[in-house]
Amino acid sequence: MSGEGAGGGLVVSGGGSAAVASDELFTDAQALEEVSEQLGRAVGELARIDARVSAGLLRRTDAPVSAFEAEAEIDRAASLLGAAGSRAETIALMLRLSAEGYGRAERLAERAVQELAARLGYGIGMLLPMLVTVMLPALPVAVAGLAVAALASLAVPGWSRRMPGALGTWLAENNRVLTNPGTVALVRAGVMSIDDVIAGALRMPPGAARALGDEGAGITGVATSAGFFSVVGSRLGMLAETPLLSREVTAKAVVQRDVHAPPSGLAERIDRIPQRTHNAEGDAVGSHVLVERYSQPGTPDRFEVYITGTADFSPVAGEEPFDLTGGVTGVAGMPAASIEAVRQAMADSGVTAESPVQFTGFSQGGLIAARLAASGDYNTAGLFTAGSPIGQIEVPSTVAVLELEHTDDIVPALGGVRTDYDAVLVEREAFAGRDTPEGVAVPSHDRDEYRATAVLAERAGSERVSDVVDRLNGFSAGATSIVSTSYVAERPAP
Amino acid sequence: MNAPRAAHGDQHGRVILDPLPHPTDALLPEAMQRRAELHAASTALAAQTSALAALRVRLEALRRSVPTGDANARWRGPAHTAYRSSVRELGARLDEALAVVVAAHTHSGRALATIDARVR
After folding, report:
1. Which residues, other chains included, contact A365 with Cβ-Cβ below 8 Å and sequence gap of 6+?
2. How many C-beta neighbours within 10 Å does residue A353 have?
3. Which residues in chain B have Cβ-Cβ distances shorter than 8 Å to A69?
4. pTM to 2 decimals?
5. Which of B48, B59, B65 has its CB closest to that of A34?
6. Is the pLDDT of residue A257 over 90?
7. What is the residue range of B115's domain?
């Protein structure tokens, strides 16, 4: 149901409802409900107009025929407007029901695909030892393939040129393969079935595997799979998170300045997310976390925390806490250096368990933000994420949550199938009907592309989106003093 | 033939004629009541005409807010066709209702003009 209509092809879901539809469809339903309500009022108004002139008075004054004709037309208009109002209400209801039906059908289809992928995954897991033996000669290619998956979260120009030989050249010329809603759906299904592959490889009874997995009790799933990779990877010197994080990770304030105004929209929030990158010499520049403290006389200080995305894609943990290890550990729900870094930055800024807090994060930054919002350790009022793998993280329903996802971006798919239906999800196919730029792994994960989607979401007509945007904007409204502090975190190499 | 005019005598024995009745006194009560009712009808019709004019403006704005059914250009298929057809039908019904309100306003205006002419 996605499309490039007036709302820029936004598809809206969540907000405590099963309904999934384009922003235009929800906007139309709202408009029709408003029309129906206004027509009801018009019928009431006509009744009052009719009562002003009584038939008796007209007869007694020997009123002209036109007066009686007016009376007859008023009655007719009331009848027509009443019927039109009922019609508008019915159409609006049908639209809402179709959105509900579409959402439920989508969930059922998602569930069916998940079941299928789980069975397939279990079978692959059972055959894994044999497959490894047969495919041993092709292992380098497979490793390269895994590297592609890891590097898929990169949106760095020219990345694919650095990939080995023919694979790099092919991907550079065919990055549309990764920037594709079909690929994204496959990745999501694949991520959801990793636990089944592991169960198959461990020769777990199929019934038990299903009962424990996402399709059953949900005891095992994306988080346990990520945890498995984290544990197995650490044996190979990869994805090994530093022990005793709270002692070793340090987040230092690097810049503090006064800010004139709080952010007034989603795009402005994305603009405020710090960027930790590497310059031409290979040195890390920029910060990881930015905390804005909003003060207003008579109210407790409020804080908005902006968190950067992955800054280092090496699978080997180094000094950079916002690396692949942090991402995988974060998906696993285990203590990650990046999460600890944000906690430290918040504590340093004066955030307490009672302070009203709102989180904004891009990519891994959104994952960290969602983990912190879901932790219950903070008085979280709002959460805004863009391109983040947070499908399996459930944030309390009292928190205003808005997630932006591109349906052709595989990074959010790495978080698995969505389970939190209270959060409002705004989706868009970033490269629908246009060419992808050359040499970028996943252009749809580009921050600027998400900024463009944020602008469209701000203009969305559906109340589901505008309500949550208003709540996010209202958090910092009225602040008389704003202090912004940027933080850079370090993790001593293990 | 006129009725004899009432008279009375004063202290000097002169005959004093009573004052003549006011001309409108002769119209009461039927004529006066009719005149009052014409005023009431005029006031009621003026209010009706004005209210219909205001309602017409509101309905015209409401008509413009009815969706066209074309917004989501990539939503295709029977469901979209049915939806577009439904909102177009709704628009047609509203157009018809609006035309009736316009006619009511016109009739009410004419009736008001006629009644006002009688009042004058």
Report:
1. A273, A306, A307, A308, A309, A322, A385, A388
2. 9
3. 103, 107
4. 0.74
5. B65
6. no
7. 29-66+76-119
Q: What is the pLDDT of residue A294?
A: 94
- Is B115 within 8 Å of A63 when comparing Cβ atoms? yes
Q: Are residues A2 and A34 in the same domain?
A: no
A149-199 per-position pLDDT tens digit: 545 444 444 444 444 455 556 666 677 888 888 888 888 887 777 777 777
Tell me, yes or no, whether A62 and A16 share the same domain. Answer: no
| b/e map B37-56, b = 16+ CB within 10 Å | bbebbbebbbbbbebbeebb
Residue B17 contacts A where some CB pair is shorter than 8 Å: no
- Which of these, A409, A474, A486, lies nearest to A155 by C-alpha position? A409
Question: Over 90: is that where the pLDDT of A342 sits?
Answer: yes
CB contact under 8 A, A80 and B100: yes
The answer to whether B91 touches B69, Cβ cutoff 8 Å, is no
Partner A contacted by B21 (CB < 8 A): no
Question: Residue A244: pLDDT band by 50, 70, 90 thresholds?
Answer: very low
Whole domain around residue A370: which residue ranges? 1-24+107-494
Q: How many CB atoms lie within 10 A of CB A52?
A: 16
Q: Does A429 touch chain B (CB under 8 A)?
A: no
Report the distance separating Cα A467 and Cα A73, nearest Å: 41
Percent of chain A with pLDDT over 70: 79
Q: Output DSSP code: residue B84.
A: H
Among residues A106, A124, A157, which one ends one of the domains? A106
What are the Cα distances from residue A207, in Å, to A198, A279, A417?
A: 14, 52, 21
ipTM of the prediction: 0.75
Q: Are A425 and A13 in contact (CB under 8 A)?
A: yes
Identify whether residues A141 and A239 lie together within a single domain. yes
d(CA A407, CA A409): 6
- Do A101 and A246 sit in the same domain of this protein? no
In a domain, B53, yes or no: yes
What does the alpha-carbon distance between residue B115 and residue A492 come to, in Å, rounded to a whole number?
95
Which pLDDT does position A173 carry in this prediction? 67
One-letter amino acid for residue A436 of the chain: T
Number of helices followed by number of strands (H, E) in chain B: 2, 2
Partner B, chain A 36-95, Cβ-Cβ below 8 Å? 38-39, 42, 45-46, 48-49, 52-54, 57-58, 60-61, 63-64, 66-67, 69-70, 73-74, 76-77, 80-81, 83-84, 87-88, 91, 94-95
Please report residues of B whose CB lies closer than 8 A to that of A102: none
